[in-house]
Amino acid sequence: MAKKITLPLTDEIVKDLKSGDEVLLNGVMYVGRDAAHKKLVASLDKGEKLPLDLKGATIFFMGPSPARPGRPIGSAGPTTSYRMDSYSPRLMAEGLKGMIGKGMRSQAVKDAMKEYKAVYFGAIGGAGALISKSIKKADVLAYDELGAEALRRLEVEDFPATVVNDIYGGDLYEEGKAKYKKD
Amino acid sequence: MREIKTDEIIKTVSELFQHSCHYLPDDVLNTIKKAHETEESPVAKEVLGKILENADIAGAEQIPLCQDTGLSVVWLELGQEAHIVGGDLNEAVNEGVRQGYDKGYLRKSVVRQPFSARVNTKDNTPADIWTTIVPGDKLKISVLPKGGGAENMSRLTVLAPAQGHQGIIDFVVNRVSESGSNPCPPVTVGVGIGGTTEKTMMLAKKALLRKMGEHNHDPEVAEMEKEILEKVNKLGIGAMGYGGRTTALAVNVETHPCHIASLPVAVNMQCWCNRHEEAII
């Protein structure tokens, strides 16, 4: 049974999340990929104000296909997360508490998740049509010039995801593989 | 000499990309359905169920299966008795990509300069176009919208010939294992063996176009495909890497003669969303 979660995330919420838990996310999340992450970290380095409030925020690693007329967004599945690994610890230090993507994270990111009490959710890669149905509103927040890679703000209802890395060091990828591996 | 108009090529390429980004080939869909039925891991079974649901929504509501509608890979097999009229063949293919990605609301995922400015070309061109001249008077067009997640897991190695069969098996299985959840399993594993290295890579990529359930016509190679598939599905990675029995849907191996000193092997994977289509003009 999937747990309903209301964003933004808090220490109270993340302490109850364990690797393997299925969740339905509700509320506001942000969208950014490699190029947006690069710009966010560059802004932090320069001491500039960011276009979003990172406290308790969740970032979905995604670049949508264009929306057909009358729809908030096009296909909207996760991109591979390791490309954000070099930026994520910095954003967690500034308050980021949730990341949504697909694929394994580095040890440095996993360590930062424990230190800053943040979680990494997996969304089903390639299931962009299904996931788009949970997105009710989408706006470009900044970096419009990046096109599909712009920073976006989403309003979601029952966005389906699975906890991959929790704040206790749990890792669904390692646990799942160990359980089903045959010699 | 039979004439083939570039307008027809443009229209065909445009339609192939639009259609392939919304509909999985039947053989791929049926293989995923079988994996869904037999999967032992409840989490992986749930994922496979959602992948099937996603395919229904994509077709019914015209939302691309995956937001990554790929770099446009196009193979042309041009009959030597055919004559292209109305313009440049490669430009016609690129115009087809341009129109298809615009009309189909597909994502434009190509950047002009690969390592610094990385400014989007905004129309998904240029396509990767691979042309061969064949007997006949027709033009066969095969398209593969190739997503970045699976493509980034590609690898090439050149083994010593003494490493042989076992060396190949170890390299391919290890590559799938290391890739883990990144290429969106259950994957199709394309393997190229032989040629010089650019040929090896091409064999691996083109192997992805093969119909599910079909094996290499050489019995020894077909055995190798079965052996690798069995080993890969013992890794436990499963759908989306959450743990399960189906890490790959198929392993397709293509071979080519090679130099006496070489044994090149390439791996090119495709995500579960193995979209590809072809048409003959």
Explain what this protein looks like in three dimensions:
With 183 residues, chain A is of the alpha/beta class. Chain A has a single domain (3-7, 22-180), classed as Fe-S hydro-lyase, tartrate dehydratase beta-type, catalytic domain (fumarase), CATH 3.20.130.10. Helices cover 26% and strands 26% of the residues of chain A. Chain A has 6 helices and 7 strands. Chain A has helices at 11-15, 34-46, 88-93, 107-116, 128-132, 172-180; strands at 3-6, 22-31, 58-60, 98-101, 119-122, 135-142, 151-165. Chain A has a 5-stranded mixed barrel with strand order 2-3-4-5-7. In chain A, α1 links the parallel β1 and β2. Chain B has 281 residues and is an alpha/beta fold. Chain B has 2 domains: 2-20 and 65-146, no CATH class; 149-273, 60s Ribosomal Protein L30, Chain: A (2-Layer Sandwich). Helix content of chain B is 38%, strand content 23%. Chain B is built from 8 helices and 10 strands. In chain B, the strands form 3 sheets. Chain B has a 4-stranded mixed β-sheet. In chain B, α1 packs parallel to α4 and α2 (26-38) packs antiparallel against α3 (42-61). Chain B is globular. At the A-B interface, α5 and α6 of A face α3 of B.
List the helices and strands and how they pair.
The complex is a heterodimer of chains A (183) and B (281).
Chain A (H helix, E strand, L loop, with lengths): L2 E4 L4 H5 L6 E10 L2 H13 L11 E3 L27 H6 L4 E4 L5 H10 L2 E4 L5 H5 L2 E8 L8 E15 L6 H9 L3
Parallel strand pairs in A: 1-2, 2-3, 3-4, 4-5
Antiparallel strand pairs in A: 2-7, 5-7, 6-7
Chain B lengths: L1 E4 H15 L5 H13 L3 H20 L9 E9 L2 E4 L3 H15 L24 E7 L4 E8 L1 H4 L3 E5 L4 H16 L7 E8 L2 H10 L12 H14 L15 E9 L6 E8 L6 E4 L1
Parallel strand pairs in B: 1-3, 2-4, 7-8
Antiparallel strand pairs in B: 2-5, 5-10, 6-9, 7-9
Helix pairs in contact in B: 1-4, 2-3, 6-8
